[in-house]
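Agenda item 2: adenosine-5'-[phenylalaninyl-phosphate] complex prediction
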Amino acid sequence: MDLESFVLEVSRLREEAENAFRDVRDAASLEEARVTFAGAKSGKLKSIQKLLGGVSPSDRPEAGRAFNEVKQAITALLEDAHDRLAEATASPAAAPLDVTLPGRPVRLGRLHPITRTIREVQGIMARLGFECVDGPEVEDQWHNFEALAIPPEHPARDPLDNFYLNVAQGQDPLLLRSQTSTVQIRVMEARKPPLRIVSLGRVYRPDTADATHYPMFHQVEGLLVEKGTTMAHLKSVLRLFASSFLGGDVHVRFRPSFFPFTEPSVEVDMEWGGRWVEMGGAGMVDPAVLAAVGYDPDQVSGFAFGLGVERIAARRYGVADIRDFYRNDVRFLEQFG
Ligand code: FA5
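Presented output:
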C-alpha cells in the first residue's frame, strides 16, 4: 500500500471517530464506539495498524507517525466522551424530578431555650434603658483580672480554675473569659459616664458538670454608672428585671459577699414559687476600678451585676438540671415554644 492511500485511510478513520464520539449520549453508545474504534481485537484502529505492514519500508516511518496521531486522537475522544457523560449524570439537572409526588410537611425549627432567654433578657433590659453590648470570648489578663482588681496571686487566676490558651499577649497567656465582667472594663475604657449597658454571652470555667454547673455557660452582665447611683437602684433594677422575666411579684434578697471589683458586694437571691434561688453576684463598682479606667469616683458611682443565664432559664422553665440544655435531645428542646 502506498503512503498516500494509507494517510487517506487514517484521516477517514479520524473523521469517522470524531462523528461517532460526538453522538455518544449514554454508557451503552460510549461502549459501542469504544469497541468499534479502539477494540483490541477487531477495532478499526487495529485494522489500520495491520495495513502498516503493507507500506514500503522507506515510507513506514511517515505512515507510523500518521498512525500514532490518529491513535492518540481516538484515545482523547474516548476520554472526553467519558468525562462528558460523568458530568452530565452528576449534575442535579440530570436527576429525574417527579413533580407529581405529594409534598411533605415542613418541619419548623425553633430557637434554643438559652437563645430565647438571652433575647428576652435583652428586651427587658432595653426597656429599662440598658444598651446591649458585646465583648470578646478570648480575653487578656488585664480585662479578665487585673482591671477588675484581681491581682496575680489571687486564687481566681489559678490555671485549674481557668481555660488558659496556648497563645500569649506579651508574657501573659490569653484565656477564655471566665466572667462577663470583662465587658464592664472594655466599655468604661471606651466611654464616659453616664452608662447603662447589658452584655450577654458565653463564659468558660473548668467546673465539673452537674445539675447547676456546666463548663461553658452564659452570664448576663449589667452595669450602670451615673451620678448618685446607690444600692437601692441596684435592687430596684434587679426586682423589676426578675418580675418581668419570671412574672408576678418576685422578691430579691441580697446576702453579703465579696467580689474584688465591687464594694460592697452581694449575692443575689430571688424568691419565686416559694423558693429562694441564687442567681448571681452584684455590688457597687469599687472606686478603685472606676479610677483605673479614668473615671472620678468622687463624681460618679455605679452598680454592676452578673447573673447565670442557665440558672434563670432553669428557674423560669422548671428545668431541674441545666445539663439538659446541652444534651441536644430534640424531645426536650421541642417543649420550648
Ligand atoms: C461572677 O462571675 C461575677 N463576675 C458576678 C458579678 C458581676 C459580681 C458584677 C459583681 C458585679 P460568680 O462566679 O458567682 O460571679 O458567677 C455568677 C453566676 O454565674 C452564679 O451565681 C451562677 O448563677 C452562674 N454560674 C457560675 N458558675 C457556673 C457554672 N459552672 N455553670 C452555670 N452557671 C454558673
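Discussion summary: The pocket of adenosine-5'-[phenylalaninyl-phosphate] is lined by residues 179, 181, 205, 207, 213-214, 217, 219, 259, 262, 278-283, 304-306, 308, 310-311 (CB under 6 Å).
Owner for follow-up: CH.
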